[in-house]
Amino acid sequence: MKAMTLQKYGQPDDLKLADHPDPKVAPGEVLVRVKAAGVNPVDWKLGEGLLDALMETHFPMIPGWDVAGVVERVGLDVEEFAPGDEVFGYVRKDSVQLGTYAELVSAHVRMLARKPASLSWEQAAGAPLAGLTAYQSIQRVGVVAGETVLVHAAAGGVGMFGVQIAAALGARVIGTASERNHDFVRSLGAEPVTYGEGLVDRIRTLAPDGVDAALDFVGGDAVDVSRQVLKRPERLASIADHTALENGGHYVWVRPDPADLTALAELSDQGRLTVHIDRALPLAEAAEAWRISRDGHTRGKLVLTVD
């Protein structure tokens, strides 16, 4: 098979398209013919070695955790899927080496769910990591109908999902974004506010009594801003700032979960969740996708398509 490969930690231009043996398929796993692979900031951070102290990595390394594709073969004792099934998933294994930037990837059934019929291959590939991150963050702070939720970086890959999921639960959503993204944030179901100096006052204008929950999907001063407008400090979740743990808040590192993936698929097929694709690039242009991601101004998701 062909796959994008790093021989050692490096920069985007160190990614090369290379031949690899087809993955082995262990008991409980399936082999997926990749149609599209999602690109996430964690991909290039891993590639640069920024998470070396946290995650076991082996080279040559194929990046990527998000996948949408077709089951080609099933391993021993697999009853959940059959060849020909269309699936999507968050393929995070115990070590980083055989990822989804490839024509084929093996994945345990606990990492996959059936692809939503309403989403294209590209949209389905953009959903797992970011969608699960938003979904699990919202679960952690216990959002319910009638509450007001603050979503930081509402136009980004994770924020896009956070806004839609919270709105689907019946919450009122306030989303921070640059002015150029305000119409996009409104289309997702949130009331946009411009981030930067004076953000606390702008949020208080929209929610004078404070917000019930806050979701930090960007870092920076988002945790500090959230604490100033939250009714209860423990209703804070961050994916970027460990200080969210102070005062009973939550730091969220997304986990593969087929039930949560299925919940995202159901929301999609109900017309309550869509995936905006900023750009879809061929697999061989993964380096360019990393450069775009590093720039930090992506609206929605970046994906790689695999012929």
Structure in words:
The protein has 307 residues and is α/β, with parallel strands linked by helices. It has two domains: 2-127 and 275-305, Quinone Oxidoreductase, Chain A, domain 1, CATH 3.90.180.10; 133-251, NAD(P)-binding Rossmann-like Domain (Rossmann fold, 3-Layer(aba) Sandwich), CATH 3.40.50.720. It contains nine helices and 17 strands. The strands form four sheets. Strands 3, 5, 6, 8, 9, 16 and 17 form a seven-stranded mixed beta sheet that branches. A six-stranded parallel beta sheet has the order 12-11-10-13-14-15, with helices on both faces. It has a two-stranded antiparallel sheet with strand order 1-2. The longest helix is centred in the middle third of the chain and has 14 residues, at 128-141. It starts with a strand and ends with a strand. The mean pLDDT is 97. Residues 10-304 form the Enoyl reductase (ER) domain. Residues 1-21 are annotated as: Disordered. Residues 11-21 have a biased composition (Basic and acidic residues). Pfam families: ADH_N, ADH_zinc_N_2.
Largest β sheet strand count, sense and barrel closure: 7 strands, mixed
C-alpha end-to-end distance: 12 Å
The amount of beta strand, in percent, is: 25-35%
Overall CATH class of the largest domain: Alpha Beta
Poorly predicted sequence stretches spanning 5 or more consecutive residues: none
Q: Can you lay out the helices and strands and say which pair or pack?
A:
Blueprint: E1 2-5, E2 16-19, E3 29-39, H1 41-47, E4 57-62, E5 66-74, E6 86-90, E7 96-98, E8 104-108, E9 112-114, H2 121-126, H3 128-141, E10 148-151, H4 157-168, E11 172-177, H5 182-188, E12 191-194, H6 199-206, E13 213-216, H7 222-229, E14 236-238, E15 250-251, H8 258-269, E16 277-282, H9 286-295, E17 301-305
Parallel strand pairs: 4-7, 10-11, 10-13, 11-12, 13-14, 14-15, 16-17
Antiparallel strand pairs: 1-2, 3-5, 3-8, 3-17, 5-6, 6-9
